[in-house]
Design brief:
This protein is an alpha/beta fold. The chain has one domain: TIM Barrel. The chain is built from eight helices and twelve strands. The protein starts with a strand and ends in a 14-residue tail after the last helix. The mean pLDDT is 94.
């Protein structure tokens, strides 16, 4: 039988704007609707930011609460993952939504250069975010922008600061950070398997490299991330009409690599997340 692949969809970051692609979901309603369409297309995990571009500003935590509630009711079982990145606030404000108990949250285990700034993840902040995730039963997704972050993730697990088994996302293609390089990618995969044999992993490529990382991940047994946060185009010349269209791109690749999209139940089992009661979901 083909091996299931967890398809994650990052529906909206903080950088893509409506002018870049009108399909980028901004409001709470747009984010819920876009997630539902991606879920129907085969996504088992949604990575979430919140934005105030087109609405009366409210606190980040309040907006996360609204988005999470809508997604949980309309997308039964989908894995919810919130961003604790720098665009979610400053310092401990970045973890201000963890009490809402999403299934997962991103956790960068070190600092890295981004195109115009340093993505600062000081050790004390990493430890605090990890502790909050542990308190509220939120599984971290380790965001590995370079090799040291894989080693740091293993150190956090060994110290009991995060619960295993690890789930790591290898991020490639951000300007000034790790470029897309096949040998480095394979070394990441081997290193994680050596240090944390029970870990799972996802490949995330930025911009035009989104499909490159998807293909490599499918080939090497990992999982895939797609979505308008990372890439607003289907190809060099065509804007993506939706997050669902980008998910369908990845599902269309699966068969060639002996893979298939994981169901939400399979994804939860692979990531060691509890099953959910879908009886409260709203029929679409």
């Amino acid at each position: 039988m083909s091996t299931p692949c967890i398809i994650s969809v990052a529906i909206t970051g903080s950088l893509p704007k409506k002018k870049d692609n009108p399909a980028v979901p901004i409001t709470v309603a747009e984010q819920v609707e876009s997630t539902h369409a991606a879920y129907e297309a085969g996504a088992a995990l949604v990575h979430l930011h919140v934005r105030n571009d087109d609405e009366t500003p409210t606190s980040s935590a309040d907006r996360f609460a609204l988005v999470l509630d809508g997604i949980r009711r309309h997308c039964p079982g989908i894995i919810t993952q919130v961003s604790t990145g720098g665009r979610s606030g400053a310092g401990r404000e970045r973890g201000g939504m963890l009490h809402l108990r999403p299934d997962m949250a991103s956790l960068a285990s070190g600092s890295v250069n981004f195109p115009t700034r340093v993505y600062d993840n000081a050790p004390d902040l990493v430890d605090w975010l990890a502790a909050e995730m542990k308190t509220y039963g939120v599984k971290p997704e380790i965001e590995a922008f370079d090799l040291s972050m894989i080693f740091q993730a293993v150190a956090l697990e060994n110290a009991g600061k995060i619960e295993g088994p690890l789930h790591v996302q290898f991020v490639m293609g951000i300007k000034n950070a790790m470029p897309v390089d096949r040998e480095v990618f394979e070394f990441y995969v081997r290193t994680l398997a050596r240090l944390a044999p029970d870990a799972t992993w996802t490949g995330a490529g930025i911009g035009k490299e989104q499909l490159t990382l998807a293909k490599w991940s499918l080939e090497l047994g990992g999982h895939c991330r797609t979505g308008l946060e990372d890439n607003v185009r289907l190809d060099r010349d065509t804007l993506a009409p939706s997050n669902a269209a980008l998910v369908k791109q990845v599902t269309g690749l699966c068969d060639a690599y002996g893979r298939r999209p994981a169901t939400v139940d399979e994804a939860r089992r692979m990531l060691r997340l509890p099953a959910v009661d879908a009886s409260t979901a709203i029929a679409a």
